[in-house]
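QUALITY CONTROL LOG
STEP: pairwise intake check
CHECKER ROLE: data steward
CRITERIA: each record must contain a sequence immediately followed by its structure tokens, with no blank fields

ENTRY 1 OF 2
RESULT FIELD BELOW
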Amino acid sequence: MPDRGGGPTGPRIRVGRPSRRVRTLLMTLGVLAVLGMVFTMFAGFWTDWLWYRSVNYSSVFTTTLWTKIGLFFVFGLLMALAVGFNIWLAHRMRPPLSAMSMEQQNLDRYRMGIAPYKKWLLLGITALVGLIAGASASSQWRTWLMWVNGVPFGQKDPQFKLDVSFYAFDLPWYRFLLGFGFAATILALIAAALTHYLYGGLRITSPGARATAAATGHLSVLLGVFVALKAVAYWLDRYGLAVKSSDFKATDSWTGLRYVDANAYLPAKTILFCIAVICALLFFATLWRRTWQLPVIGFGLMVLSAILIGGLYPAIVQKFQVQPNEQAKEAPYVAKNLKATREAYGIDDSQVTEYPGTSQTEDKTQLRDDVSDTASIRIMDPNIVSPTFQQLQQIRNYYAFPTNLDVDRYTKDGKDQDTVIGLRELNLDGIPKRNWINDHFRYTHGYGVVAAEGTSADAGGRPEFTESDLPSKGDLGSYEQRVYYGERTTTYSIVGGPQKEIDYSDDSGEKTYSYEGDSGVSLSNPVNRAAYAAAFSEPQILYSGAIGDGSRILYNRTPKERVEAIAPWLTIDGDAYPAVVDGRIQWIVDAYTTTNGYPYASRTTLGDTTADSLTATNDQRAVVAQQNQVNYIRNSVKATVDAYSGEVKLYQWDTQDPVLKTWMKAFPDTVQPKTEISGALMAHLRYPQDLFKVQRELLTRYHVKDATTFLSGSEVWQVPDDPTNKTGDAVPPYYLSMKMPDQNEQTFSLTTTFTPNGRDNLSAFMAVNADPGTEDYGKIRVLKLPTSTTAAGPKQIQSQFNSEQDIAESIRLLRGGDSEVEYGNLLAVPLDGGLLYVEPVYVRGGGLKYPLLRKVLVTYGGQTAFEDTLEQALDKIFGGEGAATEPPPGEDEGTGEDEGTQPPPTSDNPTVQEALNDAQEAFEAGQEALKKNDWEAYGQAQKDLEDALRKAEEAQSAEGGGGAGGGDGSPSPDASPSS
């Protein structure tokens, strides 16, 4: 209770008002917070500018920035003016306030409340809508640049006879302008109506007229503008029918006009356009008539017409004209869709030929020599052997290989050879001691290329390395081996300063290095250091003594990331791959130009179309911008990223692509001409996988050129599921050197198979020439099997492998103990009218956690072989000399012995006998290794055994006698079962 005495009271205490010191502190904290936010925004902008300048593509940054700024201010200002002017006009037209109704008396409080702040309120509202509209418009920078720089395609759509560029470049911009116009008109209408209501121009409950003449005229004009924009929308909708997507039973996604569109929707849109124009004129006429009677009637008629003409009439046409005779009605429009889709996806020149599916030669022995001439069969699966590369060539735990290796071509002894290749990249998880200095200063790069022959394995089932060890050495010669930019390099590094980097380690210890390139951004400037400390949320960058003169920060280090940042208008292929070119490791990145505005061409979603069993388990192989829906795609750019310097180069690959020409006008001097591609680089370019996957998906339906057949759906194919794993995803395409029936020699190719829709037998085989050094690079060949035959597809072949008793028993023995069996890529090769299937089988045996090649499965013409080597399997299939199928060596955990393996024979020749004694020792060492499940020692023993037998055979041959091994001069299969 308060003190009610009359004595003196103490000093009064003001409650609720902070002291001056507190107010000063709060104000200081507020200012610091604002400055912090401003500096953070500045840091993001400044570091972006520094990065683009460091890669010599500052023009991309400035062009994009100024385009966004221009769109922001122009459309933000237009929106602000549209709304602000109509608020000002409605306020100016307010009626004089006389006898006040209860409604107006209630509103008077609000009018009086905002009266002192009318100008500020007007500015605030216009600024808010301007900022929102400007931000939305700035996101349309791609649409603007394509419209202002668009070049013609030189092709016209079949309905309106307009160049394709109108749909690809012009129509999207017109639609944006139309949408902006609708938004501005609606916001202005709402703002004007509220202002008229607030100041008495519109009344709801007051007696008398509901609106003043001024308010009626003002709002009628705005409604007239809205209806006029609707008329423009109806007119543009006519052209939009050519790129409109809809469901159609002949295909999942149909683009373009169908019968009902051309004969119902198109005339309906024209009629509605005329009605909307008349209705808009009636609204404008209220400026003189001051009544809404006619405009309201006109607007009601327009809505009714939209329902009847635009909705009901097309439904009637579809029901009573199209459905009773669909094939005849739709066939002309299907033909247009077929033609446009094949052109838009580059499959119009696909060569589809009939293929019997069964061998035409009765004596299969004649085909044995044709196999090696037809294909260089790759038994090293790049998607399986990465752990083997890791175990045998990792060398240090802080190195790692990608999950999926790559296939390239390198010349050896004057002949191109399919090669499995991977880079020894930095693996931060393997650093012995994790801390900020080690993560970002000491361990900064990987080291060296590791490569192996794709068509062979050594005696132990390991890759035959052509480039290996640390530093790497082999067939690739001398090159810069340090890998500062790679697929696994996702964090920043600070290099070139006082802190030395770990280069690599050998028997003599760690080798140190200091980066000598000019990549990255210099941190010698304190402003730069502060900006990166803020941008990366890493304050140590600001004050660390490990940063000094010469320090540079490297980031955005994955090849796909760098190309996407430099060319944001490109869609990036999911698989960047390395190549040694002119003494440098170059990442090669395929990039695409796309649009969804190609008339009549069906759309596809890149993420769905390019998904397969590899992307399901490795998201690094996913295409960038995978959710984009496109109906036109070209591999228009080949990009390279230097693994040491990070230098990015873009080369024009498709010189005819109008989309690329448009972007080259928008960003001049960013893409180099095709003639700048060196011969050394050209030798390693290839046909990209993601484009191939898009094309094969389209060819499941669009291999058909006849509209009637297309409508019937009888020739629909599907991409089979990968039979070698259980993901249930599509089989990936495979690279290998082979020749199709109409080719004279092998070419590096990308291949796949098709099965009928809903069935597992083979319906077609597809290959594209992937070697740009040949004349018909990019030519798609499809071998179509007759529907009357039931050639086995991949799933049936895998099932056939697994169901044969001898093979099943051998697989069971391979899985003995804690071993795991992994199936490699199931390759299909056309041969003499039939299909030769080859599948390598790998085993992770005993304590070894990496796969070794142990068997090769081969089938042709209904015959199957399961042998230790590809040569033995082919010999068995085609009647050559080969051993019978036997259990694999040493996988029976009970004995650890291989019953089919016999000790080497003896000889009276001393030299031969000495070699055979060495072979005996190697044989016994191999058996001992098998008992211990030591696969590495076993492989070495098998190699020693093979060398000893070869030495004995050469010594015996020198005397004119037979070989110590097989009669053909090779070691006996019985003596070396895993060679």
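ENTRY 2 OF 2
RESULT FIELD BELOW
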Amino acid sequence: MLHPVRRLREALLAVALASTALIATVPAAQAAGAATPAAAAAATTADATAAGSGYWHTSGRQLLDESNRPVRIAGINWFGFETANYVPHGLWSRDYKSMIDQMKSLGYNTIRLPYSDDIFKGTSPVSVNTSGGMNADLQGLNSLQVMDKIVDYAGTTGLKVILDRHRPDSAGQSALWYTAAVPETTWISDLTALATRYAGKPAMIGIDLHNEPHDPACWGCGDTTIDWRLAAERAGNAVLAANPKVLVFVEGNQSFNGSSYWWGGNLQGAGQYPVRLNVPNRLVYSVHDYATSVAQQTWFSDPSFPANMPGIWDKNWGYLFNQNIAPVWVGEFGTTLQATVDQKWLKALVQYLRPTAQYGADSISWTFWSWNPNSGDTGGILNDDWTTVNTTKDAYLADVKAPGFGATGGGGGGDTQAPGTPAGLAATGTTAATVSLAWTAATDNVAVTGYDVYRGGTLVGSTAGTSYTDTGLAAATAYSYTVRARDAAGNVSAASAAVSATTAGSGSGGAGCTAGWHIDNQWSTGFTATVTVTATAATKSWQVGWTWPSGQQLSSAWNATVQQTGATVTAASLAYNGTLPVGGSTTFGLQGTWSGGNTAPALSCTASS
């Protein structure tokens, strides 16, 4: 699968547009619009202690600000530094401050700024209009100094900035993080230089290490010349050594165990081979996801589209969020929005990201591609005049914006009443590695939208239903659980009465292995689940079996050969994941349908040694 190489087209188009734009004289009224309103300065002071202040860190799947308040990245890509312009595009038409002010006014709270390593060579920006007082404070600055101005001004408005190492040089994207002309040492040195440059400036909350790694880049293969996961560890730890407060954003690659996805969008290997950083609570996984205006993919022509998309997202990256492993940030997604299939895709993705009014900051972060109208295969939020807004496209994003960063997103409609406390919490089953729970639905004055499950006071997962299976547990160990209900306004109930459960001994669940069940995502007629297989003895192959208790039907599966006959399901290991050491584990996933109930099955696991 090849991802279109679109960025070079954008760079060439930008130079052409800029040359035309600079012939005209900018109206005095437009130049005057560059001035910062006095009200903005007053708002900056008032917002100094608002949610989103300071550097950010992670806790499980959530992002937290310096005061441990949940926050959500809901932003926009503004490209240009990575092109031969060496500066964000559009400055041939407008003042950079008016651009940032407009982003904020539309409800975006973060700017992703792509760049190339060329800007460390003292490059001079191309096509910056300074007539009539526009961009007056950018005159004579090099590219890095312009970046300083953008970061500083964004900070005064309350916006955050993520720097994205988009390309080794302005000529084009690279599959690996290095090239013959830009070796790994240069890549890491330049990343470290940025981390140092913005130390003490929390408007710059983090760095995206490299844009869209793709084949031959691998994840977890162990070859240091192509293993993107290992390279991300080397670079991420260097960044954190220079500034331990910034976030490190690590994109996926293209392929894992023969399964391909968008460039930068495949994080299937991150569960088995996580990125290991020396500073805890700084890792955010990032993906890119696109529509047919970028490239046609098989899932767009699936008869079940768009209902198939949650399962595809779960498989490739959503499981990291669903299983509370780490925050996920969709660093790029976009479309021209001309095709009906693209409209359905964007609507489905926005829902999957979790609307702010319903879920608050307990949601997937994002930055839309792009602010620029001159992205050849997606267009932008701005129209071609670089001033007016594509209101149709912007409206699709309304439900997932978070202009105030806060947990409720201001979308609760004045509802301040918390749901009732969930009752009847009980452990309905255990294996050596799992505990299954169920409880009675809570009540609310409007509606309960979900439940958060806590193990010993730590959030381990969320579900829309009244059952949950906790996985990856130690055998013969006692655990305590509570559940809280959540409503559409973000109000959270008191914790339920605690229930204790003890996992079975390591020999239970079958010979040589145990299996645990976890629902990743569930909607009105379907669901996706992950099964974790843990070896209690060295294995060469394994098989997991179960009988559906509620009439569920298998639709598809990955990382195992899964078959259903009647209500009985069997799943067998593949050549690459059957061999496990004692205590080793692997996972496989599946998508299915349900009606009436979606009770977790009792799993059996047998292995051959």
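INTAKE CHECK: passed for both entries
DESCRIPTIVE NOTE, ENTRY 2: The longest strand covers residues 478-487.
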